[in-house]
Design goal:
Mean pLDDT: 93
Radius of gyration: 18 Å
Strand content: over 45%
Number of domains: 1
Structural class: mainly beta
Shape: globular
Length: 326
């Protein structure tokens, strides 16, 4: 199969009816980078109505040059009536991800504020194959994603940056069993209308390894016949400086991208140490970005991370230390 036509309607952008499974969740996610400068970030809100008496799990990372900001909040506010109704997902007044014909992201923190308005480059699409096993059954029964153009403003440590960038977002809902994931690698990004892409490898606790990918060129989706990704792992066995991703496309064509990490953050989500690394990429003379997201836990351990060489693990504001000091 080379083309896909699974485009959920606008109504799917809003909150979905909460299911009966005690591990039911709904989450929205966006990764973005300015088109011209090393400025970017990650934002996720996950509603978990049955856990902790009802909670939101918020991940927020941002950077501009050497300044970093990280918040990892496993039990942010959740109010069914206020946060899980209307046009999107929110977590109190500080965190919102809404849709009114365009996606609007708003973050309000003391040392960091973000406002992004997103216009998709192609129709929202469910790229996940139905036979992906635990990745769909236990993680994302309902799902769609899209790359886009983002405009807005980042205020970080007292400095304001106007943003004109590319981004990638997704939205998932249904039961989520975090302990079924052993390791994964997810590569999503864009250089603009001419090329957006996604690829994933997913190692489940049942021993399966699912791999698939896609590219979108000027709105036309092509599913890859094969996908592989490697990362250049540091000696902490957690973080990495870059990698290589290859999509094997129909007709013998291959697409290879070599991400170079610009800023990375360790985000702990229900015991999974997930590294989101925002990377610069180049393809056919066009510059863009991707998120090279990786978790590495093949033996299902759950201890806290004690060393992180190439990714931020501090809460709040921090500054990148030059290599080799870090």
């Amino acid at each position: 199969m080379t083309d896909l036509d699974v485009h959920p309607p606008d109504a799917e952008e809003g909150p979905h009816p909460i299911g009966d499974d005690p591990l039911w969740q709904e989450s929205v996610f966006i990764v973005w980078r300015d088109r011209h400068r090393p400025i970017g970030g990650v934002f996720r809100v996950g509603h978990e109505p049955y856990q902790g008496g009802g909670q939101s799990h918020v991940v927020f990372d941002a950077y501009a040059g050497g300044v970093r900001y990280r918040r990892n909040l496993p039990s942010a506010p959740f109010d069914r009536e206020a946060d899980h109704t209307g046009t999107g997902l929110t977590a109190g007044d500080a965190w919102s991800f809404t849709y009114d014909g365009a996606t609007r992201v708003r973050v309000r923190q003391h040392d960091c504020e973000l406002a992004l308005d997103v216009a998709d480059l192609y129709p929202r699409t469910d790229f996940f194959p139905g036979d992906a096993g635990t990745m769909v059954d236990d993680f994302a029964a309902g799902h769609f994603e899209a790359s886009g153009r983002c405009l807005g403003r980042l205020s970080l440590d007292g400095e304001v940056h106007e943003i004109d960038g590319w981004c990638h977002r997704d939205h998932s809902w249904g039961p989520r069993r975090w302990d079924t994931l052993l390791s994964h690698r997810w590569v999503t990004g864009s250089v603009g209308p001419s090329l957006s892409f996604g690829g994933i490898s997913w190692h489940g606790r049942d021993g399966t390894l699912a791999r698939f990918g896609y590219v979108v060129r000027n709105g036309a989706v092509t599913l890859a016949e094969g996908f592989d990704v490697t990362v250049h792992m540091a000696c902490d066995a957690l973080t990495y400086s870059g990698g290589e991703a290859t999509w094997r496309l129909p007709g013998g064509e291959t697409l290879t991208l070599r991400p170079q990490v610009e800023a990375a953050f360790v985000n702990d989500i229900h015991g999974i140490a997930c590294v989101d690394a925002i990377c610069a990429i180049e393809h056919d003379g066009e510059r863009g970005f991707c998120d090279l997201e990786v978790s590495t836990n093949p033996r299902a351990g759950g201890a806290a991370v004690t060393q992180s060489l190439l990714a931020t693990i501090e809460e709040g504001l921090s500054r990148e230390e030059p290599w080799p000091a870090r």
